[in-house]
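Structure (tokenized):
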């Protein structure tokens, strides 16, 4: 069945590319590979998220790793809800529903939970997992016109399609996808696009820019009337993201808890992601009227929110899994948390120590 889905999606995309003149920009290809209805990676029926390969999953997220991730995050959301005088949490890209379940268990029973997810398949999986919470949970497939509440997104920005750029030593080219003898191949075209950092690039460098993620933040800013937003993802400030030594960019694929860097094979059968340029995200939010109220590593954020306190009395397995959320070589340093606010003033507990907003 998986092979049939693969052939069907690849054939479909190859035909569309040929009908479009033989070339697609990579962001269009990535969007179709991930979200094509019924065939894209996030639109089919398999289990992408999980702790172990035996579960049939492709990668692990923090909520799947430890329920204490949601328990700690809930403390920050509770503070933001109180400061905002609202009772609504909005989660974007809720995945398996693991984080929603943890937050609903930890938040006040009067909090209403809204999930915005493009994938009908994932919404069905989330609904089954969250059925016990009844009317507290509501699903939407688009941004509402106005949000009064607290927004959260865990590993949602990295799943937004990116554009690829290649530097040949003299000029930048946009990297796209063509078809040759029935196979997807890289093809570059001249472009006026540029990365946000100038100079120092080695010829042959390939990197990403993030107009869709930044556009999402600007749109969210238009809709967020009063409240705060917290995004957790892996990435760097732009000085690190576009460092001259990062010649291959950050684009990566995940399948069966293994990683590879070729998104042109097994299309629709594996995840495609890129690290987040948090400087670009911060500037997009600020330019649209949001205040950046914090930026730090996941380890600092979770410890500030009391994760170590939550570990008291835990068994060894739970302690070991929670440590993976904090240690530098696991999730603790690579993952960052950025927060925005509009119309509210408070000192978010998650950034009480180790705030790095000055590095953005």
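Design, position by position:
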């Amino acid at each position: 069945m998986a092979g049939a889905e693969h052939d069907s999606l690849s054939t479909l995309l190859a035909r569309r590319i040929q009908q479009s003149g033989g070339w697609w920009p990579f962001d269009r290809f990535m969007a179709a590979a991930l979200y094509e209805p019924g065939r894209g990676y996030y639109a089919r029926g398999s289990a992408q998220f999980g702790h172990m390969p035996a579960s049939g999953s492709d990668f692990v997220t923090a909520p799947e790793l430890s329920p204490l991730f949601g328990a700690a995050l809930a403390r920050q959301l509770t503070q933001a809800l109180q400061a905002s005088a609202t009772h609504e949490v909005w989660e974007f890209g809720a995945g398996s529903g693991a984080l929603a379940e943890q937050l609903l268990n930890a938040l006040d029973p009067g909090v209403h939970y809204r999930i915005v997810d493009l994938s009908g398949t994932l919404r069905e999986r989330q609904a089954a997992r969250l059925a016990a919470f009844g009317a507290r949970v509501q699903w939407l497939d688009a941004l509402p016109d106005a949000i009064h509440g607290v927004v959260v997104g865990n590993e949602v920005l990295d799943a937004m399609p990116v554009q690829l750029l290649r530097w040949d030593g003299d000029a930048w080219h946009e990297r796209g996808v063509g078809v040759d003898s029935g196979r997807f191949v890289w093809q570059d075209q001249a472009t006026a696009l540029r990365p946000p950092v100038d100079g120092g690039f080695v010829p042959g460098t390939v990197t990403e820019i993030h107009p869709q993620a930044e556009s999402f933040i600007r749109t969210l800013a238009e809709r967020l009337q009063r409240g705060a937003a917290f995004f957790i993802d892996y990435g760097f400030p732009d000085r690190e993201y576009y460092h001259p030594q990062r010649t291959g960019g950050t684009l990566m694929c995940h399948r069966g808890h293994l990683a590879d860097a070729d998104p042109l094979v097994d299309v629709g059968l594996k995840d495609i992601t890129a690290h987040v340029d948090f400087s670009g995200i911060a500037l997009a939010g600020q330019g649209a009227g949001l205040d950046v109220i914090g930026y730090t590593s996941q380890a600092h954020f979770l410890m500030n929110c009391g994760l170590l306190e939550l570990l008291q009395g835990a068994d060894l397995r739970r302690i070991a899994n929670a440590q993976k959320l904090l240690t530098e070589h696991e999730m603790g340093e690579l993952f960052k948390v950025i927060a925005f606010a509009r119309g509210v003033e408070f000192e978010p507990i998650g950034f009480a120590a180790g705030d790095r907003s000055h590095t953005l």
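Reviewer-requested clarification: The longest helix spans residues 2-19. The mean pLDDT is 93.
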